[in-house]
Write a structure and sequence with these properties.
158 residues, Aminopeptidase, alpha+beta, globular
Length: 158
Amino acid sequence: MTRKLSCPITEKDCNELLIRPLQDVDVNDIMVMLSKSFPHNFNRQKTFWKHIVTKHDTHVLEKDEKIIGILNLRDTRPRNWIDLFAIDHELQGKGYGTIMLQATENIERSNGTKSIHLHTEQKIPQNVAFYSKNGYKVTDFERWGYSDGHKISLAKLI
């Protein structure tokens, strides 16, 4: 059974959105968006992020032909991992992240994925709040080896 994707923003805005696979020409735009969305750790992470967006299943969210979001999924079925998820810093809190996350869950569910897992930083509490609001549950809490903080692992059965 396919669920209808609920749209937390106006129907007009939803109709103007496109989720599509990343193309090589998108990488520079993605890196600029990530530098603005994650200014606190962009320099430390940029080489890793550039690698994962080009080597794994990465989709972008477009509005008016401008990339406003990215979601990178590592396929380890029956559970998959979100390695990187970001919405343009100026558009956060407007429902675009929820749209992209729900669309990804719907696609993965139809492909036989049973759950989606991810890590986020404890020092960014709005991330935990966002994922909790979207049905993800905290599964682990530990020191993050490359960071000055702790990671929180979350998962959702889909």
